[in-house]
Design brief:
- The chain folds into two domains: 45 residues, no CATH class; 221 residues, MetI-like (MetI-like fold), CATH 1.10.3720.
- The protein is 66% helix and 0% strand.
- It has 15 helices and no strands.
- Helix 5 runs antiparallel to helix 6.
Length: 377
C-alpha cells in the first residue's frame, strides 16, 4: 500500500517560467505588430542611423582626449575637446575653493554619501542612528569642514569661493532633505481641522506655487535679511537655500496631499478602532501608504529640483553650470568645439544623477509591490 504525503506548509513561490518563444517572434510582435508600429520602428531606426554616426565621430572617434591647450581642438575636423574637461575638472568640481583644502570637500561629501547609502540600503541595520547622523550630525560636521573651524585647525573659507559641483550638490541635497518632511507637514496642515492652520498652510502653498522659482530666489535673497537683525543676516548661500527649500516644500505638499487623499478613510478609522492615537495612526498606517502611492511624483519633484539648482546662478551663486559657462571663456581653450563639449559634459553630469534617482525609485516601487501582492511588476 503506497504512502500518502500531505504537505504541512504551502509550497514556496516560484518565479514564472521564461518565455519559450523565439526572440525573432517577440521582436516581430513588439516592433512590427501592425503597420503603425512597423512604421514607427522604421522611422526610429532611420533617425538613429542618421544621428548616431555623427555623434560617435564627434564625441569619440575624432575627439581630442589629451592636449596642453586648445590648439589641437581648433584643427579643422577635430571633435569634442575632452582635454578641456580634464584640464578644468578641479574648477568644475570645487570652483575657486582653495586647492590645498579640497580634501575637506571630499571628506564632507564622502560622509554624506555613506550616510545616504546607509539610509537607503534596504537591508541596513539601525536606520534610526543613520537618520540621526544624517539630519543632526552631518549638517554640523559638514558646515565645519566646508566653512572652516579655526579651533580645529581648519582655516575659514568664505562662501564666495565655493562653486562648481559641490555647490550644486549642496543646494540640491539641502532642498531634498527639507522638501519631503516640510511638504508632509504642509499637507497635513492643509487638512487640519483648525481653520487658522488650514488657511495659513493653504495660503503659503498657493503663494509659493504661484510664483516662479526665480522670483522666490530673488525674494529670499533681497527680503530675508530685512526680517532679521543685522548680526543675524543669513549668508549669501543660505538665502537661496531657504528659497529652494520653501519652493520644493510647497510643491511636495501637493504631492503628499494627493497621497493622503488616495488612502481610504476606513484605514484611519480601523486604526483608531484598534486603539491607535492620531499620531500613531499617521505614522504607522496613513503616511506609509500615502507616500508609497506617490513615489513616482516624489522622485519627479526631486529630479526637477536637482535641475532647478542651476537657477541659483541668478542670485550670484557659482553653481556647476555657471562654472562650465565661465570655463569655456578661457582664451587658452578657445575653439569652435569647446562650448559644445562643455555643455555635453554638463548634460551628462545632470543625467547621471537623475537616472540614479529614477533607478532607485523603481527599485523601491518593486519592493513595495512585492510586499503588497507577492509579485514583481
Amino acid at each position: 500500500m503506497s504512502e500518502i504525503f500531505l504537505r504541512a506548509e504551502p509550497a514556496p513561490q516560484r518565479p514564472p517560467p521564461r518565455s519559450a518563444r523565439p526572440v525573432a517572434a517577440l521582436l516581430r510582435e513588439n516592433l512590427f505588430g501592425d503597420w503603425t508600429s512597423g512604421a514607427i520602428t522604421l522611422g526610429v531606426a532611420a533617425l538613429l542611423a542618421l544621428v548616431l554616426p555623427p555623434l560617435w565621430r564627434f564625441l569619440v572617434a575624432d575627439a581630442v582626449w589629451i592636449a596642453p591647450d586648445g590648439a589641437p581642438c581648433r584643427v579643422p575636423g577635430a571633435g569634442a575637446c575632452w582635454a578641456f574637461v580634464g584640464a578644468k575638472m578641479d574648477f568644475f568640481l570645487y570652483g575657486s575653493y582653495p586647492p590645498q583644502q579640497h580634501w575637506r570637500v571630499d571628506l564632507a561629501f564622502t560622509l554624506a554619501a555613506a550616510l545616504i547609502v546607509w539610509l537607503l540600503w534596504p537591508r541596513a541595520k539601525r536606520k534610526g542612528l543613520a537618520a540621526l547622523s544624517f539630519f543632526a550630525a552631518l549638517p554640523l560636521v559638514g558646515f565645519a569642514l566646508l566653512s572652516g573651524a579655526p579651533a580645529l585647525g581648519l582655516p575659514q573659507v568664505g562662501t564666495n569661493l565655493w562653486g562648481g559641483a559641490m555647490v550644486s550638490l549642496l543646494v540640491a541635497l539641502a532642498g531634498m532633505v527639507v522638501a519631503l518632511p516640510g511638504g508632509v507637514l504642509l499637507a497635513l496642515g492643509r487638512r487640519s481641522d483648525l481653520p487658522v492652520v488650514r488657511l495659513l498652510c493653504a495660503g503659503l502653498i498657493e503663494f509659493v506655487r504661484g510664483a516662479p522659482l526665480i522670483a522666490v530666489l530673488f525674494m529670499a535673497n533681497a527680503m530675508l535679511p530685512l526680517f532679521l537683525p543685522p548680526d543675524w543676516a543669513p549668508d549669501r548661500l543660505l538665502r537661496p537655500l531657504f528659497g529652494i527649500a520653501l519652493f520644493a516644500s510647497a510643491y511636495m505638499a501637493e504631492v503628499a496631499r494627493a497621497g493622503l487623499n488616495a488612502v481610504p478613510r476606513g484605514q484611519g478609522e480601523a486604526a483608531q478602532a484598534l486603539g491607535l492615537g492620531r499620531v500613531a495612526t499617521l505614522r504607522f498606517v496613513i503616511l506609509p501608504q500615502a507616500l508609497a502611492a506617490v513615489i513616482p511624483a516624489i522622485v519627479n519633484n526631486f529630479v526637477a529640483l536637482f535641475k532647478d539648482t542651476t537657477l541659483v546662478a541668478i542670485v550670484g551663486i557659482f553653481d556647476f553650470l555657471h562654472t562650465v559657462d565661465v570655463a569655456r571663456l578661457d582664451p587658452n581653450w578657445a575653439g569652435p568645439t569647446i562650448a559644445a563639449t562643455a555643455y555635453v559634459f554638463a548634460g551628462l553630469f545632470y543625467l547621471a544623477f537623475c537616472l540614479a534617482m529614477s533607478a532607485y525609485a523603481r527599485g523601491v516601487e518593486r519592493r513595495l509591490a512585492t510586499g503588497r501582492d507577492g509579485s514583481r511588476r
